[in-house]
Amino acid sequence: MKSITIKGSERESVGKVATKALRNAGAVPCVLYGGNQAVHFSADERAFKSLVYTPNAHTVVIDLGDKTFNAVLQDIQVHPVSDKILHIDFFQLNESKEITMEVPVKIVGTSPGVLLGGDLRLNQRRLKVKALPKNLPDFIEANISELQMGNKLYVTKVETNNFKLMHPDNTVICQVKISRAAMKAAQEAAKAAKAPAGKKKK
Question: N or C: which end of the chain has fewer CB within 10 A?
Fold first, then answer.
């Protein structure tokens, strides 16, 4: 999985006044969990643009000058009106311990059902996986090459290389639904087939 570096600085004060001052200065207060003790730090809000405002999944290198940590984003708080980032929690990675996180779904192939007029519906845009940090995939490939009209693609049909999907076997990733146009065409074809043949002229 691709990694993004966030440069920040450790926080000496974590009170409400200091936190408000950080936000007013355009910085985001953050906490890194998973180590021997929590690490409080802050970074410029612009540094999180390619981590937060993207459909892709990334691991993070937190660079605090004299210390660096490998981590993943665990939780984010945003302002309900302005969408301004208020706080971010990270979780420190351990190369020998599995981590669970969500990664995006990537559709590949061409569905015969879609070619016949069906509508492709993506039920799961992201899937939860569990793996060692080095085996975390950038995305999950959902191959729709065999989906006919009305077919569904379940998680059991996805190839998993050195990672596990944390979903029940009956979880549907995507499906090809019969479109209104295709349904209307099928109904008209059925009516035409049932219609009696015209009388021959004398």
Answer: C
